[in-house]
Every structure is written in C-alpha cells, then in structure tokens.
C-alpha cells in the first residue's frame, strides 16, 4: 500500500525541481553574431543569496550551481524505502540529496539540501556578453535554445528570464507571425535582440545579494 504522507513529500520535491517550459525559445544562442565566452568574468564569480528564501547561487569560472532546502514529514517506518539513514544524517536514495532527520513519535522530519546545476559551459550551454549583460543559453531541444540574462551592480545579481508579456514585444520586433501556441521560437538579428533589451525584455527577475568574504 502506498503511504500518502511519503507520497506528498515526494510530489512536493518533484514540483520544486520541475522546470517550466519557457514562453519563448530561440533558434540559436543569443545574441546572434556575438562571440561565445569561455568563462564567467571574475566579478560575477562568488556566492549569491536570495534575500527571502535563502536560495544560494554559486558561480565559478564555468558554472552556476543552485542550493536550496526542502523539508517534509514522513512516517518513521517509511524511511527505509527511500532513504539511507545514519543517526541524524539522511540521504535520498533516488536523488542523492543529503540532509538531516529529526524524530517526533512515529513521525520523522526530513530536511534536505537540493543541489541543482543550472548552467555548465559545454556544447549545450553557451555564454555570451553583450551591452553590459551576460546571456546564458541552454539548449532545450535539438533546434531551440532557452535564454536568460544576468546583470551585476553594487553586489546585486539579477537573474532574468522572458515572460509572456515579453513575447508580444518579440513578435512585434521580429515581425514574426506564428499560429502555434507557446513556446514561440524566434530568430532575431543582433539589432533586433538589442532592441528587445532596450524595451526592457527579460522582465521576470530574481535578485541575489553577493556574500562578501
């Protein structure tokens, strides 16, 4: 018989880890006709923390890694089916995420740190620099790329993505007519992409504060 409490915990984690389809993708890394970068600039490297949920981003020369915590209750008797437990240390067998467990009666509170590689320079992850911003391009299908924008000022890192409202601007700027539903696929010129940035594209922004050593 499936345990409902354990199932809720697993579903909760799955929802947190799920990646939503972007409202727009591109036929090639953006901006087009701009050379690829082979590393993140030194000033972008370091540890950045979200002020509200304490999600942490660690940027090094080649990658962006995200760390965040999840916690949920499971019955003590259900721990053996999904976790390896040693004292108060616990490891999720499926994902490898590590954390701690505390007990209260027949219930166990599991707290795990999730480690998620958002970006790592390779053939499917391309970094470009343009007009004072960094653009991280991730191949989402064999013929399309998802693009996000990074900017850094006074210790504040803005991680920005495209919204459905941005799509309307892209359709107008690129004079694209599409009858299909999202995600739309665009092939802007460098000039058109520059215009998109100037019209405040990439409206969905999460801000992180750099941790000073």
**SSE-based structural type:** alpha+beta
- Give the DSSP E fraction (strand runs of 2 or more residues): over 45%
The proportion of residues forming helix, as a percent range, comes to 10-25%
- Give the overall shape, derived from the CA principal axes: elongated
Mean pLDDT metric: 88
Number of strands: 15
What's the N-to-C terminus distance?
Answer: 51 Å
Unreliable runs: 1-18
Main beta sheet: strand number and arrangement? 13 strands, antiparallel
**Tally of distinct domains:** 1
- The secondary-structure element order is HEEEEEHEEEEEEEEHEHE
The helix count comes to 4
Q: Give the radius of gyration.
A: 20 Å
Arrangement of strands in the largest sheet: 2-10-11-12-13-15-3-4-5-9-8-7-6
Structure characterization notes:
There is one protein chain. This protein is of the alpha+beta class and 213 residues long. The protein has one domain. Helix content is 18%, strand content 46%. The chain contains 4 helices and 15 strands. It has a 13-stranded antiparallel β-sheet. It has a two-stranded parallel ribbon with strand order 1-14. A hairpin with a 2-residue loop joins strand 12 (144-153) and strand 13.
Quick take:
The protein has one domain (about 5-210). About 20% of the residues lie in helices and about 45% in strands. The protein contains 4 helices and 15 strands.
């Amino acid at each position: 018989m499936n345990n409902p409490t354990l199932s809720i915990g697993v579903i909760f984690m799955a929802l947190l880890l799920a990646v939503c389809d972007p409202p727009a993708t591109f036929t090639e890394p953006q901006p087009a006709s701009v050379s690829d970068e082979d590393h993140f600039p030194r000033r972008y490297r370091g540890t950045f923390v979200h002020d509200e949920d304490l999600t942490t981003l660690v940027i090094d020369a080649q990658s962006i890694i995200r760390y965040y915590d999840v916690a949920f209750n499971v019955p003590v008797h259900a721990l053996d089916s999904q976790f390896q437990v040693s004292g108060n240390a616990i490891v999720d067998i499926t994902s490898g995420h590590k954390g701690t467990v505390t007990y209260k009666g027949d219930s166990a509170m599991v707290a795990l740190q999730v480690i998620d590689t958002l970006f790592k320079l390779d053939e499917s992850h391309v970094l470009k620099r343009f007009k004072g911003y960094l653009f991280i391009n991730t191949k989402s299908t064999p013929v399309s790329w998802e693009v996000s924008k990074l900017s850094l000022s006074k210790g504040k890192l803005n991680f920005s993505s495209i919204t459905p409202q941005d799509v309307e601007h892209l359709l107008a700027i690129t004079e694209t007519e599409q009858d299909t539903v999202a995600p739309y696929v665009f092939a802007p010129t460098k000039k058109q992409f520059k215009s998109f940035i100037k019209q405040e594209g990439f409206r969905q922004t999460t801000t992180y504060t750099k941790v000073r050593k």
